[in-house]
Amino acid sequence: MIYKNLHYEFIAGTKQSNIKFVLLHGWGHSLLNIKPIAEQLGEYDCYLIDLPGFGQSDMPTEVLSVSNYTDIIVDFIRAKFSCDDRVYIVGHSFGGRIAVYLGAYYPQLISGIFVVAGAGLKKHKRLLREVILTGARGLRTFYRIIGRDVMTSSLYRKYYARFASADYKNATPLMREILKKTVLEDLSHIARSVSVPTTLIYGEGDTTTPAYFGKKYNRLIKNSRLYILPTFDHNSILSAGKYQVASIILNTIKD
């Protein structure tokens, strides 16, 4: 076991069914953020998980990869469900990364995945930002060589204040290392290996995981379905968009 003390919340369905949902939240969130979706899936048992380092789950003691997070969820699935259960994964943003891994490497454990505003692909590059990022990496390397903390550089502090994401700024040092390790991984090659039924749901107004992520995943994952919901952004797709998202999920499992 690479990790212990995983916190989760169980919401019992209103009818007896072997259909079970496991819901995985995004980076910087907790199970509370994805709970509105679970509440709309009321007929079925739902397990909402606080991923390691978030919510009420313990902090990791080492730098985890997406593969490590996936292994933790695999252990949870094996412990909670029987071979007769039909387990569906609903993953938002970072949770979508884990869902893609599960669909590619553990198809025997699950019946399908729902990727909601899923991360895991590279954004279209903007030249100015790439130049600045390359310069920042070079400055970090130089300061490492001379044995100084790059944060003592006024130039780097200005860059950090301007370009570092809120997720990075708000994270602990260990979680920053996990964020860097996971965000840099492009899941394109893994998506091609997904063999379970896959539904992709993206918001048209999402700038964090844009709708073109969904279109690319749709090309990579065989027989996947793509839904792009108008007006919703990265987070509102879970709140104002909960009815549409849940409707897609429920209609899909009944097909």
Write the layout of secondary structure elements.
Layout: E1 8-11, E2 19-24, H1 31-39, E3 45-49, H2 66-80, E4 86-92, H3 94-105, E5 112-116, H4 127-145, H5 154-163, H6 166-170, H7 173-183, H8 188-191, E6 198-203, H9 211-220, E7 225-229, H10 242-253
Q: Could you please describe the fold and organization of this structure?
A:
The structure is a single chain. The protein is α/β, with parallel strands linked by helices and 255 residues long. It has 10 helices and 7 strands. It has helices at 31-39, 66-80, 94-105, 127-145, 154-163, 166-170, 173-183, 188-191, 211-220, 242-253, and strands spanning 8-11, 19-24, 45-49, 86-92, 112-116, 198-203, 225-229. Helix 2 (66-80) packs across helix 3 (94-105). The protein is globular and about 65 Å long. The model has no long low-confidence stretch (mean pLDDT 89).
Distance between the termini: 37 Å
The amount of helix comes to 40-55%
Order of helical and strand elements: EEHEHEHEHHHHHEHEH
Major sheet: size, sense and barrel closure?
7 strands, mixed
Integer average pLDDT: 89
**What's the overall geometry?**
globular
Strand content: 5-15%
Strand order of the largest sheet: 1-3-2-4-5-6-7
User: Tally of extended strands?
Assistant: 7
Sequence stretches where pLDDT stays below 50 over 5 or more residues = none
Radius of gyration: 19 Å
User: Helical element count?
Assistant: 10
> What structural class should be given to the helix and strand makeup?
alpha/beta
